[in-house]
Structures are given as C-alpha cells and as structure tokens.
## 1
Amino acid sequence: MSFQNQDPQTNGQSDNEEPVHYQLKLFVTGASPNSLRAIINTKEFCEHYLKNQYDLEIIDVYQQPLIAQAEQIIALPMLIKKFPLPVRRLIGDMSDTKKVLKGLELENAG
Amino acid sequence: MFNQNQFSTTQTLPKAPTGITGLDDITGGGIPKGRPTLICGEAGSGKTLFSVEFIIRGAMEFNEPGVFMSFEEKAEELAMNVTSLGFDLQQLQAEKKIRIDHVHIERSEIEETGEYDLDGLFIRLGYAIDSIGAKRVVLDTIENLFSGLSNPSILRAELRRLFQWLKEKGVTAIITGEKGDGTLTRQGLEEYVSDCVILLDHRVSNQISTRRLRIVKYRGTLHGTNEYPFLIDEEGISVLPITALKLNKEVSSERISSGIPQLDDMLGGQGFFCGSSILVSGTAGTGKTSIASYFANETCKRGDKCIYFAFEESPSQIMRNMLSIGLDLQKYVDSGLLHFRASRPTLNGLEMHLLAIHKEIKKLKPQVVILDPITNLVTVGSVSEVKSMLIRLIDFLQEEQITVMFTALTLNTVVNEQTDEGVSSLVDAWMLVRDIEFNGERNRGLYMMKSRGMRHSNQVREFVINDKGLDLINVYLGPDGVLTGSARETHQMNEETGKVIYNHGLSRKDREIERKRKALEAKIATLQSEFESAEEELNRMYVEEELVKAVAEKTRREMTKMRGGNDTEI
C-alpha cells in the first residue's frame, strides 16, 4: 500500500517538471571579508534564482579542519553544488553573478 | 670580508639532515631547518623521489614526522612508488609518522566567481602538521595550483604568504618545482624561496644518462657548489661528493704483499703500502690481469676481503684463465672473500659506475679493490671525465684505507707518455709491463716506474708467465745489451758451459799440484831417512870413543896402583 502511495508522488513530480531541489554547501573561513561577502552574495543569489528550491549549508572550515581534506578544499570561499549532479565547485566571493549562474548551470534561468 | 667575519662570529644555520646518502656531506649537515627549500628540475629528474625520501628518512631516522602534500600523485600511487625502495608508507602513516594529503584540482570543475584566497590549503596543511606534530613538510608540486586556478596574482600573493607561514610554523619544508624556460621554475618560485635552492638535472650524453644535483644557493652557510652526480637505485637516492675538500687523510705504513715474491723484493722486500693505489699499465697481453689476480689471490690467502671490478671479462672467464696459470680463485669466491663485480662500461655513465663501486665498497668493506681495466671506461666518458672519476675514487679509497689496484691498457709503447688516463701522477705505485721484442720473439719486461715512500728497484725484470704462475727473472745484462727470453737462456747456457770447462781446467791443475806435492813429500822422506842414518852413525862413533876413553882411564889407574900405590899423584 505504501508503495502505491509513493509511486504516484514521484511520477507526478517528474511529469509536472517540478524544479529540482538544490543542495548547496558554502565553505568559509570565519569572518574574513571574502567569507562575509560570499555568504551575503550566495544568500541573495539563492533567494533570487532558487527561491524555495535549495538547501544552503554554511560551514566554517576553521571549525572543521578535517572537512578540508575530505572535500578537496584549497581555495576559499567555495560553494559546492552537491545536487543535482554533476558536482560543481565555485570559488570566490560570488560577486560575479554571471559566473555563478554558469557554475550552477542556471544560465537559462538568468 | 664583512660577510666572512660575520660568518665566523655568529652561530651557523641550524640544519635538518635529509638522510639522503651524500647530500648531507655537500650541504654540511642538511637543508636549512625550519625554512623552505626549493628543489627544481625537469620532468623525471627525481624531484618527487627526493622529497619522499626526505620525509621518510626524517620519520624513520630522525624521528621527525612529516607531511607530504602531493599535487600530482595520489597517496596510493606514492606508496606504491616507494615500496620498490623498501619503504612501507602505509605502516608509517598508521604509526602517525607520515601524513599524505593528495590535493586534487580540476579546472573544469571549478568556476571562479570573485575574490578568493588559499585558506583552505592553509587549514589543511595546518591541520595535517598539528595532527602528527610534523617537523617536515613537502609540497609536490605546488605549481600545479597555477594550472588549476586562473588568477596568478592571487596565487602569487598566497604563495608568498604560504612560505612565510611555513617559516612561522618552524617546519623544514621542501617545495618542488618544474624547471621552466630560462628560469629555475615555471612560475618563478625561486623568488619566494630564498634560503636554499637545489637543482636536479638529468643529462644524456653519448646515449648514457647521468643525474646531477647542484646547490644553486644556500644562504648563510658553506656548501659544495659543484654539480654532483646522484644515483637512484633500489635504496633510494645517493649523492656522491666529487672530491673531498681536504687532503688530510691518515696513512698507514703497514705493507701488504703483491702475491709475487720477486715483485715484493723489487719493492724493498715487503710489497705495497696498505691503503695505497697501484697502477699496472701495459700493452695488450702483457699480463696485467694476471698480476691483478695474483694480488687478489694473495689478499684472500691472508683472509682479507677483495672486490674485483671487471670491465672486460666475465668472472668465470677470469677464473678459467687464471686456473691456467695455477691460480684457483673459485675457492675464495665460494668462501665469500673474493667478490667479482663485472659490468660493461657502457652499462651506465661513469658517475653511476663510481657510485656503484662506492656502494659495493661501503657494503662489503674490502681491504683490497681491483679495477680491471680502467681504460675501458673511456668508452663512456672523455679522458678528463675518467680522470676526475678516478681521482674521486682514489680519494675515497684512501680515506677508507683500502688498497686499490688499477690496470690500464697503454696503446703506446713509449714509456714516458702519460697514457694512463692521467692517473699515473695520482697513484702511489706505478708498475709498467711492456713487451720487449728482440731476437725474433716477444718477451715481457716489468719495472717500477714509481713507488712512493719506499726503496724500489730500478731494474727491468723479465716477467714470465707459465703454467706454474708468474715469475720475475733478472734480465741478463751482457755486452750486447739487455737480453731476455731465449737470448737470455742461450747466453746463460753459454756461460754455464764456460763454467764447466773452467771448472774442469781448475781440477786438472789441482791434481797436478797434488802430484807435485806427493813427489816432494817422497823426496822429503828419503832425505829424512838419510839424515837419520847419518845421525845414527855419528852417535855410534861418539859412544865408541867414550868407551875407549873410559877403558884407557881404567887401565891407567890400574897401572899406577901396580907401580906403588902412590895416590898423591892424582
């Protein structure tokens, strides 16, 4: 029974072409100017282009140094698009909106 | 001048030993401690191996944990690469002595959207250093960042910051960089790393490759400035200092036999000095190898170790050939005293040969080393290169108090021509074996050209090789000059005959004298007997006279008595 309940939901989603839900992670370093700018810019960007269809996680790498190796982090700030695939990495303070759109493959939306 | 004064008064730079064989000798103790060092070179020049060895040896030998940050190879690849050198990277990682971090940058995955910095790298590196208390760091090859990230001005600023940060951390760092056009590294890293720069080089000349290393700069310390050859083999990197800077080695006055008693006689009766270098030169087929083999044999007979480096014949060939002159080398090979190391000179470059010889000597610690022949090495290098190699070898051997015998082929029979790769002036003893062609045959003559520090014969000796072995015979100096071979034998035979005849004559004269003596003696006997009979006759007459006298006296007395007994008359 439960299976049947699930199936129509998924089918319905794809049929309606409901926009995919973006999973984003923003890595920053404390309260450095670049980090602060990146946080503000990312938030603005997401509200503007991905309203209600994104999860944004902001991680301070200073607090979790182990994650730097796991996520292959070199340059900061960095925004990782985990979903939808492919994974993309954007570095910088996200001030260049065009490039962010390109990086997130949202050029059509812009 | 100012610098010199400063140098002598202030304390020298603290150094971190690399543990790489030979490098610490050139640098006077290692690379600058707590500072970054740049190692640059072309692709395949051994930068990565160099830095890996620095980290591993640091962890294993100097108890200094290290972080290896690789921008090229993955941790597993690195581990596999060094397994062949006998290092277990996994184990060292598990023991928290080494931490490997592979930095992966893929330009196509990255979009640059504004200002950024390399804090991520700093955090990663900082965490890695702190987690194992690392004292050493390698960044291999940080220039890869430039291919992954497109903003060079940010990168440059960040690299400058990174090196400063490494210094503040007090870690001894190695940064590798690929050699660029006209610059040491493609991105000019040498601008940022100013304390020590080492350049690796891989050159091929005459189809033979040689790796070399040069310290381009090393602030605040003395260092060797030459190009030093280095070798990568199953034990990692070994760098060979070309020449010891000083000539202050110990010498021994102990003597060792050459294995040929007559040759020892020529050398003041005791043979060579221990730890000296001996050159045996001569034209083809004069028995240089035989002399060398005798020397090897004698060494092993004493129970000492000997390494025989053969560049011409294979060990079994030498042993077979030596058996024909009554020398059994096989038993010493079996007992581990004699080691043959045969290689074609063209196998690798001169430096590699030298290094290989070094390593063998270090490993086996022999008392005697034989190189047969050094002339073949010219096929892989110029005469001056061979000379420089031999100088270094002799240097090294003398330091280790190892006696060395070289054989050299002279193509020229002119004696005073220095054809022996110019080493004749370097060696302590120089023996020359040459052909003497005379009377329709070829004989060998041997003489000492020089032998430092001992009385030695100035005579040419005939050098005979037969199935019993080597023999040195005094040559015959006759009215016709120096005679050797059958001419000498003929002459000796003539002399022998003369002697017999002479002796014969002598004995005839002796007999004559004997006869004369006998005759005289007979005469003396006759005279003696004549004298005796004459003496007897005389004695008889004397007695008779006495008797007559006595009788006359008696008669006279009686007559007196008869006349009247008048005694007074008497």
## 2
Amino acid sequence: MIVADEKSLPEILDMIKDCNHILVLGCKGCVTVCNVGGLKEVQILASALRIGRKKDGRIVKVDEEILERQCDPEYVAQIKDRVQNYDGVVSLACGVGPQFLSEAYPDQHFFPAVNTKFFGGAVAHGIWEERCAGCGNCIIHNFDGLCPIARCSKSLMNGPCGGSSNGKCEIDKEILCIWDSIVRKKMASGQLNDLLKVMPIKDWRTARDGGPRKRIKEDLTK
Amino acid sequence: MSNDLKSGSNLEKVLRSGHFAFTGECGPPKGANIEHLKEKMHPLKGNVDAVNVTDNQTAVVRMSSWAASTIMVQEGIEPNFQMVCRDRNRLAMMSDILGVYVMGIRNMLCLSGDHQKFGNHPESKNVYDIDSLQLISLAKKMRDEGKFLNGEPIDVPPKIFIGAACNPFADPFEFRVYRLAKKIEAGADFVQTQCIYNMKKFREFMKMAVDMGLSEKCYILAGVTPLKSIGMAQYMAKMVPGMDVPNELIQRLKGAPKGKAAEEGIKIALEQIEEFKEMKGVSGVHLMAIEWEHRVPEIAERAGMLPRPKV
C-alpha cells in the first residue's frame, strides 16, 4: 500500500489561513490502513484546526467527511453538490487524492494534509517500511524475493557495497543492509551461485525516469 | 592476461612488467585553488606509479576528479581517475570517459561512491543509474568492443585501464571474495583494496582470492593508510563503516612515546608494506596518505619503494 505521514499542524494552518469554512476529507484506502487519513484522523485534524484557529482568534468552520477512495472519479463525484460551499478542502489522502479532486473541481482549492512517503507495509504495530520503488519491471525473483532497488540505499544490483556492517546499512544503523539479507538467504539455501553472475544494466524507462506513467487494460476500455 | 597493453598507462606497464606497484592518492581541493592542488600532488611525483584522484569523496563537493586528473597529466603525474555512480547517469559516465581519455587520462577506478547522506549536501538526489560493477562492464565494452551501451559504434574508443575497489572487511565477509570475482568478471584489470589494518583477516581473504585464481586474472593492490594519531585510529574504528581497526593497533599507538604516535603509525604502515611485498597474490600497494601527501616521499623511501621503475 501507499504509506503516508502527517504534515505538521502549523503547516496545515498556514495553508488554510485565508479560509473561513473548510472541509477535511479522509480516504478509506491506504491512508486509513496506515492510520493517517481515516475517519479517526479526519476527526482529530478537524478538532486540531478548530482549536488552532480559535487560539489565533480567527474561528474556522470545519466539516468532516470521508470518501471510499479519493483516487477514483466515481467516489470523488460524491461531493459534487457541496464542494463549492467551502473556501478550501484539506485532503488526508495520499498525493493522488488532492490531484483527482483538483482535476474534478478546478475552481476549488485542495490542500494536502499528509506527506506521501512510499510503497510498503506495517512490520509491527505503528511501524511501516518501504518495500517497493515502483520501477515498473519487477526483478525480485533474482534476489530471493527481496528488492535491492527499493531497499539498498544505492540500489545496487550486484551485491553489498563496502559500507555494509553487521547486517546494517552504512547510512543508518537502523536500516537493514538488504544485500546482507539476500546473501545470507542464498548462502543458507546453498544457492550463492545465483548471485555470481553480473546483473544486466537496468532499463529505467518503465520507472518514473521514462516520464509519467499510464496503464491501459484494453478489455476494460471498450 | 594477454600480451597487448589495454591502455598503455604507466600503471599498467609497471604491473605488466612484474614490478611491485605503488600508487598514491590525492583529494582535489574544496574550491578552484589550483595552486593548492599542485602543492598537494607534487610530493607524489616520481614517488608513485599513479595517483588516485578522488571523486567528491565522502560526498563532499570538491573540484571535479576529471579536471584535477587533467591538471595532473599536465604536471607530468599519471592520474588514476576515480568515478562514482552516485552523481552521474550512464550518459554522463560515457561522455566523461571519452572526455578524460582525450585529455590523456588512462586509468579509471570504478566506485559506487559514498552515499550523499554522509556529505555536505545530504539534501541532494542520488543517481545510481548503474552500479560499480556495471560501470566496470561499461568501460570494458567501450574499450574492447568500441561500442556505447546501446551498441552504437564509438569513433575512437577510449583505451582505459580499468580499476575497481574491494573492501575485504565489510560484511558479509564470506561474500567479499565473490564480489571481487564478479568485478573481475565484469572487466576489472586491477583492484585497490580498502585500508587494511586487520592483517589476519586480510591474509585469510587473500588466500581465498589466490585459491580461486583471482590474482591470476587481475592485479590486486593492498590499501594502506598510515594512522596519524590515536584520534584518527579511534575515528576509523568507530565511525567509518566497513573499516576494521583492531584494538591492538590502537593500543600500540597509545603506547608510543608522547608526540610519537604519527611515527608509530608510519612504522605500522611500513611493516604492512613489507609483508605485502611477500604476500602471494598481492601485486602492489595503494598508499592513501589522507591529507598527508607531503609525507609520501619519506614513506616511499623508507618502504624501499624508490626509485619507481621506468617502463
């Protein structure tokens, strides 16, 4: 899923400083699962904005709502009849949400309340980690299911760099050296030979480097 | 190794003729101060076979390694131009390889590069379009096939002596010799190791490399950095990832008479060089006298490395 993180309250208050009536809009997709943009977070942010503005001596009226998904025109259309009632809409969806909203309602102002961080999952309660870089051409079967593109700080394809130390990455002792994990997994299964061939140079056209991407599933477009 | 020279560099000729090679290192200045650069490089002239010119080492921005290497050529010193994968995509790499070749540069060391998080611009975007092994194979393709990565022919291919780095002390230790083997398979003609302090571990590593026949396919130069102080030794031991400084060495420096730690550091380096001269599979020493270039003539002399062979 897409994992996001809260923006600071002062930053959001600054975004809405010219608004007197706003909508805080959550999303039931990924951001609900990673506890940043679900109904509960909508309510908390709405309260915090009311309190923050009250302290400032400028009351703001805040409505609360959540959509099934903000990355789908069908659900975005559900606020069509009331979206123009607001001076601005604060979206708690990932970066996709406020863009779909902006495209659907060009006259309205949409503000992002979260920072979209990565594709990943929860490794423990309250802890999420990156797993995928969305390069558009998955090769993890070569590395026992572990991705060096997303998880090695240098996206190395041919083994650990000289900074790998005690299973940790040179840039931060909290970051796993994924190459250490790949090598140990291959050694344990007696398949180290798999890692001895030089990996071909990657074609990045399938990644963001090839320009903004689009997926078309022909049978659904007819 | 075939009889034809791959690049005709001095370093290649020294190694090919069976001499024990001796390379040095010089970090370009943090500015366009050409006098400072010349001041740093001149003690190396005639005392080493080639000088590594670092490429924004520790991710701190400095004068570009190709420009500093070019100045070195003009000053009659042979550079070993370093290129890291952190700052260039494949287009920039190939064009820089052509550019440095035209400027008379004949050795190139292919490196991943320190992550920008360590440096003085940690906010920067990293590139890592290709990795250091793939950079080796790219340089080899350009030289031996006379082709760009896309297969198009190169009008006058760059004949470069291709180097790689090797850190026997990083983890997982068991994989390190295989990573070296991969670099050789990719096309490395010579390898310079990370600074060696743990001799026991290095002997073990070299035995594996020799047993696998790697030293027959590629020249291995052992990395030596004299410890200038107890503080430097402790910093290397604790703060530099992948560096293995045994406690005995730190104790030895501590045991030196007051004000003599640097001399003790040089003695340790000289003892190491003596051992490397005899060590099976080791073809030379790479002396990284960090910000101590002016001490290189003395170290070279005391190590019995002078005069350098004329080949």
